[in-house]
Records
---
Amino acid sequence: MKVSKEQALKFYETMCLIREFETSVKHDFLNGEIPGFVHLYIGEEAVATGICAALDDTDYIESTHRGHGHCIAKGADIDRMMAEIFGKKTGLCKGKGGSMHIADFSVGMLGANGVVGGGYNLAAGAALANKMILKNDRVSVVFFGDGASNRGTFHEAANVSSAWKLPTIFVNEMNQWASTTPYETTTAVKDISDRAKGYHMPAVIADGKNVFEVYAAAVEAVERARAGEGPTFIECKTFRVEGHFVGDPELYRTREYVKENAALNDPLTWFDRTMTRKNGYIDGVIEPQELEAVRAAAKEKIVKAKEFAMSSEYPDPDQYTADLYL
Amino acid sequence: MRKLSFSMATCEAMAEEMALDDKIFVMGEDLARQGGIFGQFKGLPEKFPGRVIDTPISETFIIGGGVGAALAGARPVVDMHFADFIGVCMDEIFNQMAKVRYMFGGQAKVPLVLRAPDGMTIQGAAQHSQAVEAWFCHIPGIQVVAPSNPEDAKAVLKAAIRSDNPVIYFENKILYKETAMVPEIADEVPYTIGKAKVRREGKDVTIVSYSIGMKNALGAAERLAKEGIEAEVIDLISLSPWDKEAVLTSVKKTHRLCIAHEAVKQGGFGAEIAATVAEEAIEYLDAPILRYGAPFCPIPFAPTLEKMVRVFPEDLVKGIKGMFE
Amino acid sequence: MSIKSYREATFDAMKEEMIRDGTVYAIAEDINGNGGTHGRYTGLGEAIGDPGRVIDAPISEAIIVGSAVGAAMSGLRPIVDLRFSNCIPCAMDEIVNQAAKSRYMFGGQAKVPMVIRAPDGILKMQGAHHTDCLEAWFTHVPGLQVVVPSTPAEGKGLLKTAIRNDNPVLFFEHKKLMAMTGEVPEEDYTIPFGKARVVREGRDVSVIVYGIMVSRALEAAEKLAAEGIDAEIIDLRTLSPWDREAVLASVKKTGRAVVAHEAVRQSGFGAEISATIAEEAFGALKAPVIRIGAPFVPIPMAPNLEDLCRVLPENIYEGVHRALGRQSDR
């Protein structure tokens, strides 16, 4: 599928924003500036970018503990994202949620979920509401990892979405690691998308480092969903570059293994390499300096976001009971 | 006013609210084709086509999907079949339904009602007889109600549906068949979640209960009256939030407190009531606080054994009389 | 005696029991990859000479707990680790309807000797899905036992009892315990359930606590002692069964009670303790029964708001002053 050069550069900008955001957060976490838990999306940027580019602001996404990439790709305010990670009152969730519970409802980002597998049924429920009650053509995307596909909740949401042709899109970020367990040790199927067959759900496998391939799969899935044809399973083959969480000693895999697989799967270097030569995704090429400019601008945005977070205050103490009951 | 069963009163509440707001819908197992296993959804599928949905056997979807639907702008009423199965979707309630609004800094609201038939029937045995309301009173972010009669059943369900907070509505299975005079919509008195009702005034002892426990409370009060002891009986109706002021006011008047519920005594909601009075009004008490609940064992099947885990009015009468010796 | 961390002491408990009894095994997510929760299973398989008894599970709490129930009924003795108490709801039915009831419902034909370990509590900014204390729920479920250790030595002895015990046990361990060090006996020892320990004797007030709150109560007691207030501290150790006799005897001696836990106050286990005191030691009470727990909110992430949800020595100190009928200096 071909896109315009502008669209391609937009993809690149989103991926760079995610990469720079995560790199900054990693640095700050290791410096002791961010406590709690942080789970990085480095290496998987093309998945969130490609999928979210096919959605409108009024479409929904359900995210995971590894949710910064989804949030950025869906269009959340980056300054307020950063403030939330630092627990500041200017954060998207007013400092109540933090990294694992980041949300921006104004752009349809229904929240990162701290419970692995907690998001499927929420997405399917939103899909049900939109199709059967509110009667609009919004779609619901649920992101989940290979490990999360082992939870019973996956099967329940897949079943109900297929049985009722709900506009749910199941996006499996097959990053090969469920915390410390390589997926093949706890999963019988090699391609998680094989499971879709059991629910009579069409499935497609996309190269997770190729943002255009991911985007094309998403566009088709969204079309099907809006037309009332039901759910689609999109398996994006990718690789989790960092440990499960920042600070993970990663005793379960070697540095060499990580370096090799990170290089093989990196969506940004793939983009750099591919776009600067003749390719089948856009007409013409993108010059290296254009790419550098986008990267530099993204970095600048993240620096500003950090400044915003640092200069923001913590919530007022009496706010701790706020936003509970209506 | 006309005579209605508890079950029909809930149907009426649903029908009235669903007519007012087409974002309200119902989902759960065995609702559309059967009208609910206790008939508590009878007539609704016909009145509101497409808005009463039979789900697969999938409690995580019934509740989790309900939360998602609420986030998308609908107003779901989801049905649990039996409160005993609530463990299957505990994460959906505890980590999702209760916390989504707070964790996301108020960006979301979850106007969802979870209806859960609970309590003992006749020989329902260990996995179909439980009363588990205490767990949910320990969870910030949700509200818990448990009406005891048809009139309240209707008013409380309407309040729960109109609330923008997630509410768990425990409805005792035995109470479904109970009948009473229930107001028509014209002279309806709306219920405010968190308010208790004084069902019987008295000066000698305060008996606090809710849901099916009210039968024991009122039954005991009747028997005690014959012996010259006037009990004030408070029906909590709401458990989280609960009407602490009503209980404290009563206790300050009567100086004696007895709490009763069907659920297991240890760790039951009665403990919260007793502990609150022990902290905020103990100087008004002339006798120890009495607390009645099921003994610490699962519910056995055989009728001779099942009887041993029930609470009876005689238990309360005996204990309360002892307060005066 | 030797000085050990809580992690080491409980590792020793598991190792010793798994060597003693070949039917004991451990199952959890990431148990081999990075040694499981806080790395506390690192080297366990090698230490017992049987790595096959330390099993990595998929992300499926329902399977981890459910399969353990089945395994227990088939003659094994599983140790299940759920990593965070917040993961427990994903297996609530398996715990409440299966583990708790199978022995009773089947008229004694089955037994379910299993231990579910779950770290809980507030550390720092882990957010609303990773910080809750849920022990109260399980004290309300007949058929389960609930254990809440407070020190390395207590952890070791209680864990050994839990493993040898033929009942399903919920073993809640506050995250802050992991790094705690203390003296641990060298010899093989167990600590019985249902027997509290008097950590500090006193005449003026009974402070009834468990888990991480024991060390915080001790800190409060020191400050109170400097003011001439003599606090008796009781570590409940187990909540179901719990040592009502010890608590009632203490309250009958001091006439005042303060109950404290980190879990949400409303319908927390403190309510059961307070209610029991008001029911069975009413005549001895000289003051209201003070009950301290977290406020009625999920745990927020911002550190200053999170701090408002903690229950700390100063809260216990103030509680004692309220029980004594006076305002504290704070």
Note: The domain at 197-323 of chain C is CATH 3.40.50.920 (Rossmann fold).
---
Amino acid sequence: MVMGDLVREVDVAVVGGGPGGYTAAFRCAELGLETVVVDAAKRLGGACLFEGCIPSKALLHIAAVLGEAERAKEFGVDFGEARVSLDPLRKWKSERVIGKLARGLAGVAKAKNVDVVAGRAVFEDSRRLRVEGDEPQVVVFKHAIIATGSAPSPLPGLTLESDRIMDSTAALEVPDIPDRLLVVGGGYIGLELGQVYAALGSKVTLVEMTDGLLPGVDRDLVQPLARRCEKLFAEIRLQTKVTGLRETSGGVEVRLGDETLLFDRVLVAVGRRAQTQGLGLETTRVRANERGIIGVDDRCRTDDQRIYAVGDVTGEPMLAHRAMRQGRIAAEAIAGRPVAFDNVAVPAVVFTDPEIAWCGLTEAEAQRTSRPVKVAKFQWAASGRAATLGRSDGLTKILAHPDSGRIVGVGIVGPGAGELIAEAALAIEAALTAEDLAATIHTHPTLSETLMEAAEHLLH
Amino acid sequence: MTAMARDFRLPDLGEGLTEAEIVKVLVHEGEDVREDAPLLEVETDKAQVEIPSPMAGRVEKVHVHAGQTVKVGQVLVSFGEASATPGTKTALTDGRARQAAPAAGARATPPPAARVTEGPVPATPATRRLARELGVDLHAVSGSGSGGRVTDDDVRAAASHAKQPAALSPRAPAAPERHEPARPAVERGPAKPLAAIGLQAPPLPNFEQWGPIERQPLSHLRRTIAERMTLSATVIPHVTHFDKADITDLDGLIRRNLDMARAQGVTLTLTSFLMKAAALALKAHPQFNASLDPAAGELIVKRYCHLGVAVAAERGLIVPVIRDVDRKSLLEIQRELGALAQRVREGKATLDDLKGGTFTITNIGALGGTGAIPIINYPEVAILGVARAREEAVVREGQIVPRLLLPLSLTFDHRVADGADGARFAADIVRRLEHPDQLLLEL
């Protein structure tokens, strides 16, 4: 420590102001612990609010409006050609959506007396953090919570410094609407942003290394999305790897197998990696693996008794809602409450058109692990609500334990799947049976009935 | 609809309540009631509520009376001919609509569900939190909810019952052969459960604020001992009676017979005499050879006499059990005790060696001291603590004589017996130890 350094003592130092971090900090404050958040950008919200969940959903809403307008022609409504103006679009996204939510979080922090310090936090030992940057200081903590999240992974082996090569953060800024866009990666980020740019007017080519979109997700759920993407995108190439990138005056030359194609921009969406480098973890007993992922127990505590970790730094699934639950657990564990991250189901949603959502056991996983399950599928072709929406390509699937009828997994594809999955998560978490679900009155006509219908199939 | 009797059962009261006390019966047999007319007033742990009639019809029979405790699903009233369709309402006055009564009745006795041994146990997040708070391992709880889901009630029941050994049935319904009760039966009403107590220790302070600490996980045995001691000390109100036995004569008897016993491969010790004396005294005081069933409001008196002897093994305290001590000879008891203690010390004792005890003796004499108050080996009623025998100056017929005195402490469950009972029981043990020749007459 240098003389003159500002030293402050707190009960809990939270490193990172994303959803895991701010949830933990707010909960700590509620439990009477003096809490400070150290965030590189001095703001709460993290990747989720500024370069992830929220801006992508804002853009996907725009894409959905464009898609609906296009579909309206089917029933005789023609809005004509849509014109997109990027300046108001970006302004709406950053001010009306992100700005509003960020101000809300800052207000909550103030109300709860949670101080947010700008800077990069580096552990000096298991009791202190050095904050480098605009507000240099040393924070002496009783407990720390690491919530530094994740960042987009670069293309392995291929580095090209160019504005034309975008990661998801850059793509969400919508610098322009490229004529020809290559999306590398058929995971949820590539598909969501691919659909945004396709809706805005780009000719999108998507390449995926494996033999299908959304690896790991049940094929029957992916199929309607794959069909939709085939219509929206210029081309989808599976089992294809990018082997070379070269910037030319006209764009980026991309080597795909033995072909070379020219694109105006390339979006790299090949996953996210934990951000734990440079945190000074080696001065503590916190252990991270070779991919930077920190090991935690069911109370989110690391190998260092004073230090907890939540969110993407603790590995897959890297989802904001999981981080928020972990943040709450860590805060309550620090306060001495008997808590555990014992959640059975972490729901996942792909916010494409159509949406795909699942939670609990998937059919593929059940087969791989030879777990006995009874599966019921309800095709949305038989749903009145789906027909009125002109969207009968959806599917609701329930996996139940064959003896007890307990619901162990649910998968949904179709518009609104991301909202519908909430009921499934509750059912799985509360160990409800198919009978419980079937005997619950669902409003008619809604898509939520498809869960009830699928549950009824399981009773026969 | 045919005119047939229809039973109205106590509906599910919600809030995890399983029973209620009838405060007032508001109808009489033969009375015609309309749907929703008040039938009964009942009181639960939470509130007093009026139960409305779920149907219209003539009250054929009232099965309950004021002051009676009834369980969910128990038949309260039978209705005769139906003068209208039976309603489906069993809404209590708190406005919570409940399932029709027969369903509630069926629910009260759920089929025994298989326990989940691996993977997540089916239970809501709130139930899991409750289990953590009460220290209940959900894997050890059978779920009574749909699909085997473990409910809050299951967890609370497990918290208060889990530690009972399997040998004991949780309730004591009319046993196939029920001997006469321990005491001449005075006028007794129906058995009623004792009130449950809920205790939860507050969270520990953060000790690191005062200095460095180290967290050491407890061994399985240590944890088991801790759980059982907590259970016993929390649930049983302990009371202790002290006495001393003059074992000068008994000591002489043991010394005289050491060689004879050794010839049969047995090392004669005081413990076997203590066990025999206790077993014989237990026959005369059967309430100390028993277990209290607070849920049933009954004392379960055991017609067998299996005595536990606390053995200090390297890993911790273990209490092996010798069966039918009342029917065995001293040499047999001593031989079994030697073999059992060796198995325990070698860690080879089987579960059967440790189960089924009715009374426990703990001899801490080897380590010195002048007396100790042990904790009762739950769910037994009493435990005999024995300290080191010492020669003391005793006044006998005006003369000071050296006598060998053995300090004893009898700790027992004050719910089951009072101080005078304990004193009499202890005196019976002392008498037998002081007059070993009398032991002979009882063999």
Note: Chain B has ten helices and 19 strands.
